[in-house]
Fold this sequence. Notes:
Strand content: 35-45%
Oligomer: single chain
Number of strands: 8
Distance between the termini: 65 Å
Shape: elongated
Structural class: mainly beta
Strand order of the largest sheet: 1-2-3-5-4
Helix content: under 10%
Largest sheet: 5 strands, mixed, barrel
Radius of gyration: 24 Å
Number of helices: 0
Amino acid sequence: MFDGHLTRFELDGTVEHREGQQFINGKGFAGDSFERVHRIEPHGFASHPVKGGIGVAMSARGNRDSAYLFGGENPSMRPSVDLGGTAIYDHTGNIVSVVQRQMRFVHSSKVHIVAPEIILEGTVRLGGPAAARPVSAQNSVDSAGHLQTSNLAEGVFVP
Length: 159
């Protein structure tokens, strides 16, 4: 038997991280103030919610001192996601989305990938989806023994 109280919860922007846990402040459905509510997230996922996020707070018998929050998404920042799609996004418009058979990374300034080895399999198009000219590195030799001096991979740098 469930003996708890559920309420709509709006985050006020206060977020405290302590010993691997997150605590937030906000208001309940009737304007009730909540402080240091423990926010629960699934394993392997961590986020820092923004002011105006909405979630559901659960407390035992309405006791605000032992409340837990689930959710915390700000509706004005939620991207549109197609059926079956998934998106990870932030408050500035950066997004990683998995939609049907495509994965997209959208960032305002730079994407930085760090790994001891990076493997790309398949066709790589530099400069956009319409790129169709094969590229080569300067001073490489083609199959006919000619030194490559044009059609170089501009913007691709090697040590």
